[in-house]
Design brief:
Blueprint (H helix, E strand, L loop, with lengths): L2 E2 L10 E8 H12 L12 E7 L5 E4 L7 H10 L9 H13 L7 E5 L5 H9 L4 E5 L3 H9 L3 E3 L3 H7 L4 E7 L8 H11 E12 L4 H4 L14 E2 L2 H6 L6 E8 L7 H12 L4 H16 L9 E8 L2
Parallel strand pairs: 5-6, 5-8, 6-7, 8-9
Antiparallel strand pairs: 1-2, 2-3, 3-4, 4-10, 9-12, 11-12
Helix pairs in contact: 6-7, 10-11
């Protein structure tokens, strides 16, 4: 790997070049799969880079200006009805963390960053009747809807909100958000600024140590402008070395037996790309049955739970 003078968004130290992508290839992927034109995010650039932080193993796309904007996510959600699932494995894990730390009638405060339609906040309200629930969401229409349902949700960026609400929350959670963030250091420091001493910070992100992402370098939604960072268990375990927090737990999602066909599709794409459209429908069922016996090592998500230092 070639050493670059591109600074890590976590430590500020140098990074290694992992791969250099052609912009034209990425533009074609988004157009063919989602009917989206993402050329505008790359200006006149012909390539962009995937780099690795030497201190943490965190991989990120460069330049950091490639991150998607509100218009991109609105178009993506319109073209993909499954983009925002109502409930996922990491949501259940976060509820379990709350149950292990609070009683149903305790008074405590929660902030969800990127709360979307409010599915998690609504679930918390069902379990913890006295919890003080807050959310940040950049979709103004969703914010207005949730406010109408008596949820304290704000259309505001995390940095300015944390400055207004220092040390205000017992629990801060972000599901499938951190991988979209270009400036990781600023984001995590803002989370910690809003968190009370001893408070819990919970992240759920795609598991880039999983078979799916390790073997598909051109997984469209794991590329800019959608994803800006590629997290795995190792890089998440390294974070407390550079922030005022300690690790409670980093855990991998078990393999999802309902989506075993995806593993076969990725294997075909990597090993026999010219025949994948022919072989997949023929062998999908027997391969899925085989994978129920020889299960993948992990699922598509990894969670990281930290406690802010006192």
């Amino acid at each position: 790997m070639t050493e670059l003078f591109i600074k890590s968004p976590i430590t500020g130290n140098v990074t290694n070049l992992v791969y250099e992508y052609r912009v034209d290839d990425l533009v074609k992927l988004y157009k063919s799969e989602f009917d989206l034109d993402v050329r505008r995010f790359f200006s006149d650039a012909q390539t962009f880079k995937l780099c690795e932080c030497v201190d943490t193993g965190f991989r990120f796309y460069y330049p950091l200006s490639l991150a998607g904007d509100g218009a991109f996510y609105e178009a993506l959600s319109q073209n993909n009805s499954h983009y925002y699932p109502t409930w996922k494995w990491e949501n259940e894990q976060a509820i379990d963390v709350l149950k292990n730390n609070f009683n149903s009638l305790d008074n405590f405060s929660i902030l969800e960053i990127g709360c979307g339609e409010g599915f998690f906040l609504k679930a918390v309200r069902n379990f913890f009747h006295n919890a003080d629930l807050h959310g940040l969401e950049l979709n103004a229409q969703v914010v207005e809807k949730l406010q109408g349902q008596n949820y304290s949700v704000y259309n505001q960026d995390l940095d300015s909100y944390a400055n207004q609400k220092p040390e205000s929350y017992n629990f801060i959670v972000a599901f499938q958000v951190l991988e979209h963030v270009p400036d990781v250091k600023s984001f995590i420091n803002s989370c910690l600024r809003a968190l009370k001493p001893g408070g819990i910070l919970f992240f759920g992100v795609p598991n880039n140590g999983s078979y799916l992402f390790k073997n598909d370098f051109f997984h469209t939604l794991n590329l800019p402008p959608h994803h800006m960072g590629l997290w795995d268990k190792y890089s998440l375990q390294k974070l407390p070395l550079f922030f005022q927090m300690e690790t409670i737990k980093v855990a991998l999602q078990p393999p999802d037996l309902n989506n075993l066909g995806i593993y076969f599709k990725v294997w075909l794409k990597k090993n026999i790309p010219t025949l994948q459209n022919i072989l997949y429908p023929i062998f999908r069922i027997p391969v899925k049955l085989l994978l129920r016996i020889f299960k993948p090592a992990s699922g598509h998500t990894v969670i990281a739970i930290y406690r802010k230092n006192h």
